[in-house]
Recover the amino acids of this structure.
């Protein structure tokens, strides 16, 4: 059990936690948060796999891919958050139609 | 069990616990704050994995900017009684129930963990190949060399994706504000701490960004990290009411946005005339990469700020 | 054999961690926002400062030590600003008057 394998397993566990958060919530922002945790976990898996021989230094290619992934994840999150906010402003919903509890449209 | 391994084990347990708390938090804002904490802990994990550039990017973009985005959105979505867990009424929930969802996710995770444990324990990967070509690339930080030289395609497309996201956000503008100014006008007390902070930090932030950009050639750093720091201090100045965003229809803003990717594309096309698209002749490699990084950082700062500000909400 | 610098680093870092523990305890146990902020400032200023001093002793060069000091300065500046904003918001009960947003 090396550090690299440990972080790889941690990344997989994080992806599992994020997946649970994605399916267990209906609120769009919580889902976006869970998606970010999945992404972050997958990046840790990348990093762990790139560090398997620490004496020769970390592999720069997975690191570059992870940096790219972090930026793209932010771009996607920004678009998703904007969609969620606009959905709320136009319809008052915080979850997609068909999901969410029955009093979703109740005026507060 | 070396002390380093025990440290990593404790770190992983902490990361998992904070992520779980973020997902299961009762209050949405509490969950988002825990997500920011999780992002910072993940940055520490990246340092342990000897990936300092990634740690910088994760802390700045993954924890910082994503956190700001989510907090801003949560504030907009706030209604009385909002933020509590709304359970899905259809789909996975109806099919499996809460215990079923848990079992499915746990089962999938366990299967992947078992699979990961069968992977070979060692693999030098592409590091030796990268190091062989490092001298020809003109950059001594291998990650920057990979990002801007060996895999320049990925970075070019990544910046284009960022630009596409900005266009996507702008396309969601309400009709009456089309072409207007993103975000609301902020006012802070002119003698208050926020205004003071908003005046002090951009100066420091600019220096830090320049340092990150310049040092990115031989030490951890780079265009994305520098661009994020610039975006963050600009957003702070905007939050303190010291500056205002330009209208999205402004030509100068659009020029700023396309400056980085356009220059990157230009240099790549010049390389195409010599035979290799996005190839740099070794004599001008360092200079061209640094020039690309500077313009890229400026464009990235503008793109990230606009992504956080969101949709135009007032007319110019 | 551990050098005197390492022992000093250990001492400073342990003292810093002690302040962090005290600050965290205060965050968890104090009843309202203002007393929690009060506890947190101990963690931020003293705790971080002691840890940074311990790390400065390990830094190879003066330049690196100064950069660590800059990190501490920025952290306490940010913490002080945010603490004041939170305290004022909690006092007036109207957080949106801190930074008014016009539609």
């Amino acid at each position: 059990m090396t550090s690299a394998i440990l972080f790889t397993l941690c990344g997989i566990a994080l992806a599992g936690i994020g997946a649970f958060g994605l399916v267990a919530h209906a609120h769009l922002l919580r889902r976006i948060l869970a998606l970010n945790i999945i992404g972050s976990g997958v990046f840790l898996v990348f990093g762990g796999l790139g560090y398997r021989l620490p004496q020769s230094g970390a592999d720069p290619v997975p690191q570059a891919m992870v940096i790219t992934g972090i930026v793209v994840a932010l771009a996607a999150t920004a678009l998703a958050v904007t969609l969620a906010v606009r959905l709320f402003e136009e319809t008052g919903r915080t979850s997609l139609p068909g999901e969410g509890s029955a009093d979703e449209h109740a005026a507060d | 069990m070396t002390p380093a391994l025990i440290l990593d084990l404790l770190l992983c347990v902490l990361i998992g616990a904070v992520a779980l708390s973020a997902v299961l938090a009762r209050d949405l804002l509490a969950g988002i704050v825990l997500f920011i904490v999780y992002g910072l802990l993940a940055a520490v994990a990246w340092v342990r994995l000897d990936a300092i550039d990634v740690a910088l990017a994760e802390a700045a973009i993954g924890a910082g900017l994503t956190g700001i985005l989510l907090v801003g959105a949560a504030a907009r979505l706030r209604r009385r009684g909002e933020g509590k867990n709304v359970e899905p009424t259809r789909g996975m929930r109806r099919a499996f129930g809460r215990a079923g969802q848990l079992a499915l996710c746990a089962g999938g995770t366990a299967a992947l963990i078992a699979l990961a444990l069968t992977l070979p324990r060692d693999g030098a990967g592409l590091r030796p190949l990268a190091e062989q070509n490092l001298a020809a690339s003109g950059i001594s930080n291998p990650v920057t060399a990979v990002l801007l030289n060996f895999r320049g395609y990925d970075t070019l497309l990544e910046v284009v994706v960022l630009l596409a996201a900005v266009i996507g956000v702008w396309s969601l503008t309400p009709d009456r504000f089309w072409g207007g100014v993103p975000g609301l006008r902020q006012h802070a007390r002119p003698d208050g701490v926020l205004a003071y902070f908003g005046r002090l930090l951009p100066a420091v932030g600019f220096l830090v960004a320049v340092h990150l950009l310049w040092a990115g050639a031989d030490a951890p750093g780079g265009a994305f990290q520098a661009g994020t720091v610039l975006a963050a201090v600009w957003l702070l100045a905007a939050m303190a009411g010291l500056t205002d965003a330009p209208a999205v229809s402004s030509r100068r803003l659009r020029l700023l946005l396309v400056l980085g990717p356009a220059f990157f594309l230009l240099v790549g096309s010049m390389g195409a005339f010599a035979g290799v698209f996005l190839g740099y002749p070794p004599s001008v490699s360092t200079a061209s990469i640094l020039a690309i990084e500077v313009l890229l950082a400026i464009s990235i700062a503008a793109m990230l700020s606009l992504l956080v500000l969101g949709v135009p909400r007032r007319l110019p | 054999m551990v050098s005197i610098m390492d022992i000093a680093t250990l001492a400073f870092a342990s003292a810093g961690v002690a302040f962090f523990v005290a600050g965290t305890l205060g965050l968890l146990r104090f009843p309202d926002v203002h007393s929690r902020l009060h506890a947190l400032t101990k963690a931020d200023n003293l705790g971080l400062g002691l840890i940074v001093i311990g790390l400065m002793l390990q830094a190879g060069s003066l330049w690196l030590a100064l950069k660590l000091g800059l990190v501490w300065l920025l952290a306490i500046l940010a913490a002080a600003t945010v603490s004041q904003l939170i305290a004022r918001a909690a006092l007036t009960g109207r957080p949106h008057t801190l930074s008014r947003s016009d539609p």
About this structure: Residues 131-316 of chain B form one domain. Residues 207 and 253 of chain B are 23 Å apart (CA to CA). Chain B touches chain A through 103 residues (CB under 8 Å). The longest helix of chain B spans residues 92-117.
